[in-house]
Design a protein that fits this description.
Length: 479
């Protein structure tokens, strides 16, 4: 074989990734798709790429140098399993199968284990950045074995996005670590998008500014600490005028947000791990709420506040919203990194959180300068208990908290939903609280279920004889 890398699955993502690979010095790319039409189209439309097309898995395997390396870009789920099974029949021990699709990380753990038994390496790699990222440079989050990283690392580095001279790819950890981190990336993306949407809504309803005027505010914010791809594209979307009606496009788009499931995975996984990713959860639920038109129609007559929402000082309000957005964003990222750390502990991955933040600086949807701050925080203190306690973020929160509170109060008074803003503030107040009413919850649990409690003043586990004389006894620790 003459190709050093192959791509299986030539729909939009696979075709773009194959073209990206072919455009880099030193790569010869073999391509295969289940139905040959897609292969033919790609090869015909891009003669410059020098692709080596294959009609069968056997031909594909024969066109690859050893150890063979192939990246699968097909629909997640059954199709991915089908391709892996076919490749296992034609590959040999030492070869590397990479799944670049959006796999659910437990599937990746299962597949890695099954493939490894044959001596073939399996790498689940999260690839972020959509079609454009695949073509021009994505952020890549590979898991898998150290052995496969030796071969794969240089290839992935050659196609990844570049941030400040560094390729946006790192060996995240073993087996499913890459897809796990990609999942949390998407969860953070949900939170970031929802927070921006809430900021827009509050400004629009508080000031009466047009979407185009608000676009200018976001463009301005994009020059400061909020600088990010998502803020940048928000300005673009708000500026867009619908050709048919002459209205702002945002006003003719149906207000029901879709989702492909990665936000829900992030929240489900966080629930199992016991990590409070409330910002990501609220963002995911906000999409669900929006997508139930029948319930919304039925509830539309429920009363809101009597008074109209007016903002006395528009500039001051906008600045408050900006600070609330930044503070809430810090909470969302802090929660996301907590989930990665908890996942690493649960699944025995050695994940460098600073390295993860660095590979998100370019190529992916949440790309931003901000991520350098996260890398700095973990560099200064690798065992940081929570990102938001790092000096830079703690300082930003202390500067922004008064504005944050004013915005959440204004939203509540005005009857404007701000679930991500307000839940992030509650999280902040919860995590920094000296005492939480969790003590009362423990008392309740002990009352109805004899679940026992600990005391602040002595060792041991206790139970009050609630249905007896209400004296306290030492008890077995049953949690
Ligand atoms: P699709 O997810 O639409 O999948 C289409 C591809 O899967 C075609 O090549 C199709 O072959 C192949 N396929 C199917 Br369906 N069943 C198959 C089977 N049983 N055996 C072999 N091949 C099969 O493609 P996409 O939109 O390019 O996405 C590819 C992957 O990338 C997905 O996992 C997706 O979730 C992920 N993705 C990521 C991003 C991102 O931003 N990171 C964006 C979009 C997609 P055929 O041509 O013969 O039907």
């Amino acid at each position: 074989g003459t190709a050093n890398i192959g791509v299986v699955g030539l729909a939009v993502m696979g075709s773009n990734l194959a073209r990206n690979l072919a455009s880099r010095e030193g790569n010869t790319v073999a391509v295969f798709n289940r139905s040959y039409e897609k292969t033919e189209t790609l090869v015909t439309e891009h003669p410059e790429a020098g692709f080596i097309p294959a009609k069968t898995y056997e031909e594909f395997a024969a066109s690859l140098q050893k150890p063979r390396t192939a990246i699968i870009m097909v629909k997640a789920g059954r199709p991915t399993d089908a391709v892996i099974e076919s490749l296992m029949e034609v590959f040999e021990p030492g070869d590397i199968i990479v799944d670049g699709g959006n796999a659910y990380f437990p599937d990746t753990i299962r597949r890695e284990k099954a493939v490894r038994e044959t001596g073939i390496n399996f790498v689940g790699a999260g690839i972020s950045g959509g079609e454009e990222g695949a073509l021009l440079g994505p952020s890549i989050m590979p898991g898998g074995s150290d052995e496969s990283w030796v071969t794969l690392g240089p290839i992935l580095k050659s196609i990844a996005a570049v941030a400040e001279g560094e390729p946006c790819v790192t060996h995240v950890g073993h087996d499913g670590a890459g897809h796990f981190v990609k999942m949390v990336h998407n969860g953070i993306e949900y939170a970031d998008m929802q927070l921006i949407a809430e900021a827009y809504d509050l400004i629009r309803r508080g000031t009466g500014k047009s979407p185009a005027e608000i676009a200018e505010i976001f463009a301005e914010w994009n020059r400061g600490e909020l600088e990010s791809y998502l803020i940048e594209i928000t300005a673009e979307v708000l500026r867009q005028i619908d050709a048919e009606t002459g209205k702002p496009l945002v006003d003719v788009i149906v207000d029901q947000a879709g989702a492909k499931g990665t936000g829900a995975w992030t929240v489900q996984t966080a629930l199992s791990l016991g990590v409070p990713v409330s910002g990501i959860a609220e963002a995911t639920f906000a999409r669900s709420l929006s997508s139930h038109p029948e319930q919304r129609a039925a509830a539309a007559s429920l009363p809101g506040p009597d008074e109209a929402f007016t903002v006395a000082d528009q500039d001051a309000f906008i600045e408050d919203v900006r600070q609330a957005l930044y503070a809430s964003k810090i909470v969302a990222y802090s929660q996301g990194f907590d989930e990665i750390r908890a996942g690493a502990a649960e699944y025995n991955w050695q994940i460098d959180l600073g390295a993860v933040s660095k590979i998100w600086r370019a190529g992916c949807i949440i790309r931003a300068q901000f991520l350098n701050r996260i890398a700095d925080a973990y560099a200064a203190e690798p065992e940081l208990p929570a990102l938001l306690t790092a000096p830079y973020f703690a300082d930003a929160l202390s500067r922004g908290q008064a504005a944050w509170r004013r915005v959440v109060i204004a939203a509540a008074q005005a009857g404007i939903p701000a679930p991500a803003f307000s839940s992030s503030l509650s999280y902040y107040d919860g995590i920094r609280a000296d005492r939480l009413p969790a003590a009362l919850v423990q008392g309740q649990r002990d009352f109805f279920g004899a679940h026992t409690y600990k005391r602040i003043d002595k060792e041991g586990t206790f139970h009050t004889l609630w249905s007896g004389d209400r004296s306290e006894i030492e008890a077995e620790d049953t949690h």
